[in-house]
Structure formats: structure tokens, C-alpha cells
Amino acid sequence: MGLSTPAEHRTVSYAPESQEGWVATRLDFLVNWARANSLWPMPFGTACCAIEFMATAASDFDLARFGMERMSFSPRQADVLICAGRVPFKLAPIIRRIWQQMPQPKWCISMGACASSGGMFDNYAVVQGIDTIIPVDVYVPGCPPRPEALIYGIRMLQEKVKNERAADKGTRDEMEPDPTSQLYIPPSVIDELGEPFGNSVNQTRSGL
Amino acid sequence: MSRFDVVRTGSAVAGPPPTTPKIASHRSGEANPSAAALAEKFGAAIVRREVIWGETIVYVAPNSVHEVIRWLHDDPTQRYDFLSDVTAVEYRDAEVPIEVVWHLRSLPFRKFLRIKAMLPKGQPLEIDSVYDIYRAADWLERECYDMFGIRFKGHPDLRRILMWEQYKEGFPLRKDFPLRGRFSRSEQLRQALAQNPEARYSMEELTIADAFAELPQDMRDRLNKGERTGE
Fold this sequence. Notes:
The complex is a heterodimer. Chain A is of the alpha/beta class. Chain A has a domain of 133 residues: Rossmann fold. Chain A is built from 6 helices and 4 strands; from the N terminus they run αβαβαβαβαα. In chain A, strands 1-2-3-4 form a 4-stranded parallel β-sheet. In chain A, α1 packs antiparallel against α5. Chain A is globular and about 75 Å long. Chain B is an alpha/beta fold. Chain B has a single domain, classed as NADH:ubiquinone oxidoreductase Nqo5 subunit (Beta Polymerase, domain 2), CATH 3.30.460. The chains are: A alpha/beta, B alpha/beta. The interface between A and B is medium-sized, with 31 and 27 residues.
């Protein structure tokens, strides 16, 4: 079956003469192989990263090679949320709701500097990294990332999917946010993640 | 003239249509004749007239803005029928007043006019809405209120448009507003996630559905008087 897999996983065999109709493999491998090669993306494009994402999906770079040609604009039929672009605070409950509407198993790619860290928008309106709202599997750096970079991130996600174990129940638990604050991670961690860095340190929180 | 008639730009001008000068000098450009007409018509209500980079600016006393813009819109010799923008400017110096700016365009005469009104700081930032003259002022004035906190008297639905309605940190484009906001990042995120937009609007029409008690008091008052929103 034309797959390049590590030696210990080469258990798929097909010999028409002697064993017609038989495939022997690990269930994990088969399920993960199917999942990893048909990740339906939910494109959450808000800014210029979405343009690069469109370029990735177009014929030159051809996301269909990875079984991702079917953009799932309904989150209920999506496997991977690709957040391409900055997320302002007003969008925070929207992306949270979209993530909650996606069925398990689901993954998330944070594409670009803004989605991953707020990027250059260290201001009052932009979320400092979508990992403060939803769990993220792969971060793709760049401003915006080249299509090759996004494809590299997708390959990393495929590797992660291929290494999942069905016996590991924890990977499929839906993370429930704290009921009072609706936050996944402690406020102190969010404050730490949102601390200014680089040139931003010269801009004080006190304004004038 | 019905409201659906096509207006050709420059159609009201006799002779060849006016052209936009390619090179405008800083201060010595030719003034829009509407400025002199305004000074003659309204006298003391016209505070100052300026021409900068070929564009005419008329400073109007805040109480007269509505009257002036109404005249510019209705008078057959002016016909400023297009409102491009309503915005505001705050300067860094604390004693310099906040300016509210209207960009008016006359399609029949191919003229552009900028109206400014100065609102001193330390007083309530209030000015008359031009919503009854231009429907385009609806969202423009809401944005100006959202970013600068200027209240437009007579606007039918003055609430935030860019930030969510329960936004508590103030008016972001004011000079005393810190760049990163007033609250910590975690508090900002907590409040943003609590905005619950689905509870507030029904999908069929953008009306206030639930969460009535969480709305600001002035909005509840207006809704109680039977006002519809989101139209």
C-alpha cells in the first residue's frame, strides 16, 4: 500500500495469491492512518493568513494531497480548526463556540504570529494567542506563514494523529472551561502569556 | 426629485465639470465657495475657515452644526447630498478641545467640504446627530461614540458598534486610554467570553432576544419605550 512507515508499523500486507481479502494490522494504525489522511479543515480565516491558507488550498500547493480538499464550513463536520489570522476579543466567544461545536476527535492549528501570540497587535482589542481560548495542537510561525510552512504544520499534525492510541482515553476528553470565569487555563498564566515582549516593553500599561 | 434618481457628479455645474487639482499647496489653495456662503448665512456660528492642502475646513459652533448641515444639504445652491464620514480628533494637549469632523460631498457640484466642531474637554461631549439628514450617519456616529465617547443627541440607536455592548474599559481612541486597555489580559478575556452574543441576538433578525437585564440602562430605557434595534 505505498505508505512510508517505520519498520515496526509495516504490518499491512497484501498478497493476492495466498491471502486474498486479508489485511493484518494494528487497529490504532489503521484508524490513525485514515484520520490523518482525511483531516477536514474548518477554516477560521480572519486576516492575511487566510490568503496564504487559500494559496495552500489552491492548485500550486494542493491541500487535496493530504485529504484536506474539503473545506468544512460547518464546524459539525470538521476535524481540524485552522485559525488563520488575528482574533479580536469580540470574536473570542465565537471561536470558542465553533470549537465546542466540533465533534471529537478534533485538532487545532494556530496559523501565524497573530493567532499564536497576538503578534504585532499588543493592544486592547486582540486576544494574545488563541491558546488562551481553545487548546491548540500545532503553532505555525510566520507573518503570514508561507504555504510550505502551513503544510509543514499539517504534516506535524498528521504525525501527532498517527501516534495517538485508542487506549489512551484522555486524548478524547472534552476540556470543560472553568464555569465561573469560562477560562481553560488559570488567569495568572493568561496574564503571563499576555505580557509585552520585544519592542512592546517600551509601551506602558498606564498610557500617557 | 425622488430619492432614487441618479445624480451625475458635476451635473449641476455650468460648463465643463470641475476637476480635482493634481498639486495642492499647503495653505494657499482656493477655498470652497460654500465656506463664504456659510459665513454670510450664519455669521457668528462660523468660527473659522481654513484651506489646507486644497480642502476647505469650516469650524462651526457646536450648537449650530445641525442647522448648518441641514442648510448645506437642502439649499439648491449647495446640495451636499453625500456624507462620507463622521469622526473625531483628540489632540495630545489637554487644553485643546476635541474636534468632531463631518466630511460632506456635493455630487452635483463636485465639491468637498469638511465641517468641524470643537467640544471643550471637561464638559459632557454632546452634539446634535445628523441622522435625520443623512441615514449614513447611523453607523458612523455609533462608531464615533464607541471610540471617542461623543454622544450624538437625537441618534435613534446610539450604542457601541465595534466593541461589544458591555465593554467596560472606556473609549479606546481617547488619549487617556492605555494602549493595552485598562484591565489585565485575563480579565479582558473573561469579560469578552462572557459577552454571549448568541443570547443577545436571534439569527432571523438582529433583535435583542434575551439577556435584557445585562444591557446598559439607557438602552433598556429606549427599548422599553418600544424602540426597535438592529434594523
